[in-house]
Design brief:
Blueprint (H helix, E strand, L loop, with lengths): L4 H5 L3 E6 L6 H13 L1 H6 L4 E6 L3 H11 L7 E4 L4 H5 L3 E2 L6 E2 L2 E6 L2 E7 L9 H6 L2
Parallel strand pairs: 1-2, 2-3
Antiparallel strand pairs: 1-6, 4-5, 6-7
């Protein structure tokens, strides 16, 4: 199912985070769990939807969401298999078989990014506690 991200988040306050790959160690052990455990607090601070994006295919993203507990926590897992969004944001890691996304997170209100968190300094800068601190 193709998702028009602009339409999907229209009128909502959302937290979006991207990872280099589903099932990868850092993403599975730290980044995703930080957002799973923060869901109640994010919602209490006005975040209506949390979205995880990776360049893996939709089947991999669905499996990761299901097996990690992220989908049960309410996180929506979206695939960017052609890295279309990732490239438009200038956050692609080119090379190898699969184009990957740099790790980032952001807060958007009605489609407008209000806060952006980069992993340029440290991966943990993109985890849920930093997002929560800006809400």
């Amino acid at each position: 199912v193709d998702v028009n991200l602009a339409e999907f988040i229209k009128g909502k306050t959302v937290a979006i985070f991207a990872v280099p790959g589903a099932f990868t160690p850092g993403c599975s052990k730290s980044h995703l769990p930080s957002f799973i455990s923060a869901q109640d607090e994010l919602k209490s601070k006005g975040v209506e939807l949390t979205i995880c994006i990776a360049t893996n295919d939709a089947f991999v993203m669905e499996a990761w969401g299901r097996t990690s507990g992220g989908a049960d926590a309410g996180i929506v897992f979206l695939s960017d298999p052609e890295a279309e969004l990732t490239r438009k944001l200038g956050l692609s890691i080119e090379g190898g078989i699969l184009v990957r996304s740099k790790r980032y997170s952001l807060i958007a209100k009605d489609g407008v990014v209000t806060h952006y968190f980069s992993s340029a300094e440290q991966s943990s800068d993109t985890w849920a506690p930093n997002v929560l601190a800006k809400l």
